[in-house]
Design goal:
Length: 258
């Protein structure tokens, strides 16, 4: 039986009111505490506490004339994350389909979500009809090729956080030592690609390369995965060339000209 407790009515009501504030500010562009309180049907002090919590997270900010609030950059950050996810899926579709057809294996695009990788697009080659459906699945950064690429190019704080925690073992081949993983991340940054050999699932190998946005930052990873008996380690360097080419094509479509 789970020990997790359902949020109480008061907490749910506060969340609903906070979201209503965001909708009010999206509609009005700016509003004062009194106006927001009236529209919510709550006392001014309640509206102020909700605004303070939202301001602390960057979702609202006070305009130059103090006391008037507007949406903050935190909203832009969230919207940008969704837009990037949708855009990279759309821009990467053709390249992924072509690579999947060339290799006959499964091709995925994944993005970084906190300390996990999330697959947002998948194309299947002729030989991969029985493979997993990875879309929407969260996978560990240290045990997947996409995760290693995303971690290699992630901000230093993200890398340090992952390397500073115990690394879960999924198979006998999973890299669980921080020093060994750090060396692999350095290698990925140097060569531009990463691999896993039966590290997340027994019998599954994968190779990934970074997808860059217009500013050159890594926004996603493109990977190919297949059975270890087909996607053999000796073939990794040659397959990596194709993965890199496909990832670069998507990067170019995202606006990167490096």
């Amino acid at each position: 039986m789970s020990n997790e407790r359902e949020p109480g009515p008061a907490l749910v009501q506060s969340v609903d009111r906070a979201l209503s504030i965001l909708e009010i500010l999206a509609h009005r562009r700016a509003a004062g505490v009194t106006e927001i309180g009236k529209e919510l049907g709550v006392h001014k002090s309640t509206a102020f506490r909700l605004l303070a919590a939202l301001e602390n997270r960057g979702f609202v900010e006070q305009a130059q004339d103090r006391g008037t609030y507007r949406l903050g950059l935190g909203i832009v950050r969230l919207a940008g994350s969704v837009a990037a996810q949708l855009d990279v899926s759309r821009q990467g579709h053709a390249a992924c389909e072509q690579l999947a057809a060339e290799l006959g294996e499964t091709v995925n695009i994944a993005i970084l979500d906190s300390d996990r990788a999330v697959n947002v697009s998948q194309s299947r080659g002729a030989a991969s009809v029985a493979s997993h459906d990875w879309i929407g699945k969260q996978t560990p950064l240290h045990a997947t090729s996409s995760g290693k690429v995303l971690l290699a190019f992630a901000p230093a704080a993200v890398r340090e956080s992952v390397l500073g925690q115990p690394l879960e073992r999924f198979t006998v081949a999973t890299v669980t030592g921080a020093a060994e993983l750090a060396a692999e991340l350095d290698r990925a940054r140097s060569t531009g690609w990463a691999f896993t050999a039966e590290e997340y699932e027994v019998g599954l190998n994968a190779i990934a390369a970074p997808i860059r946005g217009a500013d050159g930052s890594v926004v996603a990873a493109l990977s190919v995965s297949g059975p270890a008996y087909r996607l053999i380690r000796a073939a990794f360097p040659e397959v990596a060339k194709q993965v890199l080419a496909a990832a670069d094509e998507v990067s170019n479509r995202m606006g990167w000209v490096g």
